[in-house]
Amino acid sequence: MAGSNGHYPPQQRYAHITGWGMAVPERVVTNKDLEQIVDTNDEWIQSRTGIAQRYIAVDPRETTATLGTRAAMAALEVADFPAAKVDLIICSTSSPEHTFPATASLIQDALGATRAGAFDLSAACSGFVYGISLASSMITAGQAENVLVIGAETLSRLVDWSDRNTCILFGDGAGAVLMQASSVPGGVLSSVLGSDGSGGDLLTVPAGGSRQPATLETVASGQHFIKMDGRAVFRFATRVMTEATREVLEKANLGADELDLVIPHQANIRIIKSSMRQFNLPEEKVFVNLQNYGNTSTASIPIALCEAIAEDRLKPNDNLVMVGFGAGLTWAATAIKWAVPDAREVPVWRAGQRSATYGLARMRSRFLRFSRRVEGSLVTDEGDAWGEVVSKRIESWRNVREE
Ligand code: ACO
User: Fold this and answer.
1) Rounded to an integer, what distance in angstroms lies between the CA atom of residue 272 and that of residue 277?
2) What percent of the chain has pLDDT over 90?
3) Is this model's pTM higher than 0.85 or not?
């Protein structure tokens, strides 16, 4: 039971996924399309990876933040929950809009989530599961009530389209979940997070950071593109996916036979099959959709979760494991007792209200940017009477909190 302040006491708090959503760019790129640009073929790609097509953000206006925002809006819609009540936004990404500001802050602004803290999480393809673990800890500790966890990527912008070893693998997209505090037992049962930085060079974008800032030379030598030792990553992935799944089940006190669904990171069908082999799970208990999306990095697990739900593959009280690996090297797994709250009656006018709220968020953002420019030109360091008036007006707008 929630207390008078609307919070659950710590011993009764559970972190549940209550909303989910995904977004992909419009343009589908098939293996046949790739045959036109690199020396590859559909048969090789399908037999070595399982991938048949991927979505690529060819429109420059489609970015990691726009995809993340669309996925987050869809998740809020499923939960019928207003952005203004979200208190934390975690965006996992390896293709952020900028070094800073965080992509999460741009999403926060686009959603009009005026009460939310926001930050990016960098753990490559494992990032979404890291985010789930973090959000769950914040919720069960009483530090947060409503957290958006987003995995969003436009890795196509970091791929060397002349390198057949990597360009055939990746796709763009985003997935998001809303996690909420509840007194209903279940939700996130356990998590496992791991890292082995000694393998950092196996999968890396060498330049563009503080170690190797951008120069004409780094650009000319392609150091801003993804470099990967595919075979080494393959060996690492099959080992850690098995170990992390076993560990997270143990922590949750579950046997493999109690598992109802595994959603593994969608990188390569051979990695999925080989890492899941020893759990003796029937095929229908391991969700695979990489044939349609390729490896969307940190977005792959939430996109797969959305599709699994749409296909009715998750039922109340099902035991779900999500497990991923990626650059870092990193790996992560989480075990979840699926317990989505009963569907609420959503009034017909809600869709209109939602789009009006997002429209207001856009106006608010534009006004704040404009007002900063005005403030900068009118308010002197010493301050003056007119400047004071302007500053106060602007401050009152900044404090607007949409319900
Ligand atoms: N088309 C045709 N031939 C190709 C292609 C291609 N696209 N790519 C490589 N080949 C060739 C190679 O040149 C090689 O030829 P050779 O024997 O004459 O040298 C041959 O195919 C076999 O190459 P391998 O690298 O041994 O192929 P492998 O079976 O290992 O598959 C792959 C390569 C798909 C990259 C695999 O190693 C893999 O999936 N590794 C894991 C990668 C991964 O998941 N990365 C993402 C991590 S998530 C993140 O954090 C972003």
Assistant:
1) 8
2) 86
3) yes
- What confidence tens digit (pLDDT) does each residue in 208-265 have? 999 999 999 999 999 999 999 999 999 999 999 999 999 999 999 999 999 999 999 9
In the reported structure, the alpha carbon of residue 381 is separated from the centroid of ligand 1 by a whole-number distance in angstroms of 59
Kindly list the structural domains of the chain, giving each domain's residue range(s) and its CATH number in brackets, ordered by start: 10-337 (3.40.47.10), 353-398 (no CATH)
Query: By alpha-carbon position, which residue is closest to atom 42 of ligand 1?
Result: 230
| CA dist., res. 114 & res. 372, Å (int) | 17
Protein residue with its CA nearest to atom 35 in ligand 1? 230
Predicted confidence (pLDDT) per residue in 182-221, tens digit: 999 999 999 999 999 999 999 999 999 999 999 999 999 9
Is the CB of residue 300 below 6 angstroms from any atom belonging to ligand 1?
no
Rounded to 10°, the helix 385-398/350-378 angle is: 160
Q: Which residues contact 150 (CB under 8 A, 6 or more apart)?
A: 68, 71, 72, 89, 90, 91, 92, 104, 107, 131, 174, 175, 176, 302
| Atom in ligand 1 nearest the alpha carbon of residue 49 | 34
pLDDT of residue 12: 83
Nearest CA to ligand 1 atom 15: 165
Residues noted as catalytic: 125, 265, 295
Q: Which residues pair with 21 in a beta bridge?
A: 176
Neighbour tally for 90: CB within 10 Å: 28
Q: Which atom of ligand 1 is nearest to the CA of 328?
A: 50
Q: What is the largest CA-CA distance in the chain?
A: 75
Q: What is the mean pLDDT of the chain?
A: 93
